[in-house]
Amino acid sequence: MSRSVSINPMQAGAFADFGDLIEAKGDADKIINQGLCGRYHDRARFDFSDGRAGLSLFKAEPRTLPLKLEMVERHPDGSQTFIPMSEHSFLVVVAPDAGGVPGQPQAFRTEPGQVINFHRGTWHGVLTPLHAPGLFAVVDRIGPGSNLEEHWFEEPYMIE
């Protein structure tokens, strides 16, 4: 038997407890490059206990819905940003911390062009593209230690 979680549209206010929603909407903060480029300035809080920010490329297999959620993870030593390298939405699963374990999961579907930055220590599902190629630039902590904690649910959730 499994429990169900509905997918909601990604919105900054609903996601704020878990991380930053980064997108180029509205007026740019600055106009640069001879007036030909809008800069949406300083949109995410990168937070590392030690180490440094690193940029990696992830190529994840696309998933289909409904999705069986058996595990979430978190990174206690640093934030983590997923930047899709295609114009496709992706699935974001998060859960509040409930005394050191994940609470009730929540699911969001991004819009094309949206980027997310998980706050340090946020429980979240794995990178979940819904379309190929599943290629993402990822900014996260590079440093000593594993910076990874996994939690496997006794009873999975179905993300629908």
Question: In a nutshell, what does this entry contain?
Answer:
This protein is mostly beta strands and 160 residues long. Helices cover 2% and strands 46% of the residues.
Tell me what you see in this structure.
The chain is mainly β and 160 residues long. The protein has one domain: Sandwich (Jelly Rolls). Helix content is 2%, strand content 46%. It is built from one helix and 15 strands, in the order E-E-H-E-E-E-E-E-E-E-E-E-E-E-E-E. The strands form four sheets. Strands 2, 9, 10, 12 and 13 form a five-stranded mixed sheet that branches. Strands 3-11-8-14-6 form a five-stranded antiparallel sheet, with no helix packed on it. The longest helix has 4 residues. It is globular.
Defining key terms:
single chain, 160 residues, mainly beta, Jelly Rolls, five-stranded mixed β-sheet, five-stranded antiparallel β-sheet, 1 helix, 2% helix, globular
